[in-house]
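Subject: complex prediction, re-run

Hi both,

The earlier run crashed halfway through, so I resubmitted it with identical inputs.
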Amino acid sequence: MCENDAEAIRAKEAATGASASLNGGIPPFERIVADFGPLISRIAMSYEADPALREDLVQQIFLAVWQALPSYRAEASLKTFIARIAQNRAISFLARQVRQPPTAEMPELVESDRPDPEQVAIHTNERRVLLEATRRLPLPQREVIILVLEGFDYAEIGEMLEIAPNALALRLSRAKAALKKMLEGSS
Amino acid sequence: MTDLDLERLGDVWRQRPDPAELEELRRTADAVRRRARWAQVIDVVAAVTVAGVVLLLVLSNPRIDTIIVGAGAVLILLVSQVRQRRVRRIELKSLTGTTEEMLDQSIGRIRTTIRHNRFTLLAMCPGLIIGYLVASAAGRSVGTVVGSLSNAPLFRAAWVGLAVTLVAAAALAFVFRIRRLQRELDRLTAMRGFYRDERESNDP
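This time it finished cleanly. Structure:
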């Protein structure tokens, strides 16, 4: 199997949270970090703008995941389980901050291994704008938008947040409208 | 309905991370896991050491008062370990539930902590007075060097000064802690309010 295929399978597993069920148990922590590290990092980014505090938040999420893993019962996908922990830890982290979260920050990491620097710059800028807009959303809407952007389907989101499909649709509609307004305002 | 293309935005959002960023994440996770494992090891080693020392003391001096003190020490150790595990379990359970449940539990926990801290703060003054009276009575009744020293005005003033300073510093620390917790509680309550408003606005 070529490396690209393996990567594609791994990405697919990470997206569906299938790695746990494939092994019939909890995958090792290293595997979880490789599969879900970027998801944890993105969730941390969407709640904390300050890079030093974000690093602290990422550490706290990893610790919470490590401690909570033995209680994982495969009732939901591993991805759902980790996203839930990451969101909850990020929100409780925000509550502990005395100051209000800043709205401006250093640009996110510029990806260096892309072949087309112009395209990279456009994508990176778009991602930064999207992150900043997401951070300004009210918490309930931000939570829904992050989960949608992370690729969760509506049934999974409804289950994670324990809200009815109609309520989810309404919340998502409001979140989309608010996000669109912010994205238009920043362009 | 808005025409925001969430699928395309999702692709932008989930764009493949930089290998350096991935490596940094791996290092962070490794460090976190190592620290957590060490903390667990230190916890176990400390508990075993304390239990071992107590057992040695009891065996080297097998009297009823030594046994009572030893059993008390082990009991305190056990209770603190069980309590620590319970707190950790509750916290982890709240992290794996919904955000609203987590906020409710956090609000409840902080309210309880604030109540305990306020009670401790209020109990400090009577505690200081009782401590002073007990120490004075003990000093007088002992009739030793300590007893005669405690009757010396300079020693008495120094002792009272030190005790008052320590209690004042502790009280100040409690006041700051309560204020910080109150700010956290306000933020959590405001966050909980956002979710309540969101739910209420969905009702027909």
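Chain B touches chain A through 52 residues (CB under 8 Å).

- K.
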